[in-house]
Amino acid sequence: MNPSWSLKKISDICDFQNSKRIPLKSLDREKRQGEYPYYGASGIVDYIDDYVFDGKYLLISEDGENLRTRNTPIAFQAEGKFWVNNHAHVLSEKEQGVLDYLEYYFSILNINPYITGAVQPKLNKANLDVIEIPIPSLDERLKINQILNSLKEKIKLNNQINQTLESIAQAIFKSWFIDFEPVRAKITAKQTGQDPEFAAMCVISGKSEAELEQMAAEDFAELQATAALFPDELVESELGEVPMGWGIGCIGDIAKYSSNKILLNDLTLENYISTENMLPEKKGIEKASSLPKANSVPAFRQGNILVSNIRPYFKKIWFSFFDGGHSNDVLNFDVLEKGTEEYLYNLIYQDSFFDRMMASSKGSKMPRGDKKAIMDFQIIVPPISLRCLYSAKVRSFYFYQNKLKIENQTLIDLRDTLLPRLLSGEISLNKNMGSIDD
């Protein structure tokens, strides 16, 4: 620790606001749904119709297995109007910059000596306030916060951009292949005596007729060619209404399971994927914690779609952007038609796919998808021209997403390197805000 820093307890620099916490049962929350976040030990649990806190606070987990596993942060900030149950300590700062500093400090602090309870880990208020924390001067504290906050905000911005790109890709997919909006626009235009192609162009581009007329000739021609690929009629099928000329088939008509292998010597923690390092709710992957002991495992290549076959309700899916290997509990989808990878990914990305996986799964405690049943899932099959066009249209989104993911990993590595050195005083900050003297 920097000798100029002083050791302080939380109550020296913060006020505990635990007395304002009010727990609500899930049944009560169901009757009080609203816009205000309802926080628990690990973050937002629900949204309800009222709040008890208004401002900026630091929440520290009071109980739960996450105190030991640290799968999510045990200290996190909440700002604005919100409600907190009795599973998180609530702190307001007495000194400027303390909340940011404490959030970072607790992200690397070993709290095991302060936890009680073998079955249900607990960090009670008394034990929390025993912890002595090295606190730098206000000036140095704000500089530390500025450096770490700038990294956090850049990571957050990159994640937001990636979420936006994913949302756009999904919105286009839904418009074209689920709601058939360009087809329906043509049908409506025909019924009202308008130009069907022009109507479809408006739907596809999101532009008005006046805006279309202002488009560059090349862009207009490209949009016109896209609109021409959609029919102007819906017909009945066993799956309901479908655009005329589109087929009814199954997943196996457009994809297959990859059968390639990769040697253990070619695997690293970065390119090995198992169900353990795939993230729930379609959040992609994280670095593996260990490698298999087998001499070889199934291989994947860039452009394959990987889906965890265990507990499909977790919705673990990843669109690969490098080559590597995966465990046998991960399904590896490869396209039959090159250039349709993004279409296949967005088809499998749908909640309905995971619902069907669960419906056809085997086992109750640990359900597994039925590989044959999955390939037999009935689907609407658009023409190859549209599948390729959609894939090409959103491909740049995924290239940029991957670029930002790589950038974020670099930022995370930098943050993790700086954190312990900044918070121990090993790195001293000079008088120029944000610059570092090692």
Rg, alpha carbons: 27 Å
Unreliable stretches (pLDDT < 50, length at least 5) are 433-438
Query: What percent of the residues sit in helical stretches (DSSP H or I)?
Result: 25-40%
Distance between the termini: 15 Å
Strand order of the largest sheet: 2-7-5-6-3-4
- Backbone shape: globular
Instruction: Tell me the strand percentage band.
Output: 15-25%
Short recap of the structure:
It is built from 14 helices and 22 strands. It is α+β, with helices and mostly antiparallel strands and 438 residues long. The longest helix has 41 residues, at 138-178.
Task: Describe the 3D structure.
- The protein is α+β, with helices and mostly antiparallel strands and 438 residues long.
- The chain has 14 helices and 22 strands.
- The protein has helices at residues 10-13, 26-30, 66-69, 98-108, 125-128, 138-178, 181-191, 196-205, 209-213, 217-228, 341-349, 351-359, 371-375, 384-423, and strands at 6-8, 14-16, 33-40, 43-48, 53-61, 75-84, 88-93, 133-135, 234-237, 240-243, 247-250, 255-257, 261-263, 272-273, 296-300, 305-308, 317-319, 324-326, 330-335, 378-381, 428-429, 436-437.
- The strands form seven sheets. It has a six-stranded mixed sheet with strand order 2-7-5-6-3-4. The protein has a four-stranded antiparallel sheet with strand order 12-19-16-17, with helices on one face. It has a four-stranded mixed sheet with strand order 13-15-18-14, with no helix packed on it.
- Strand 3 (33-40) and strand 4 (43-48) form a beta hairpin.
- Mean pLDDT is 95; it is low at 433-438.
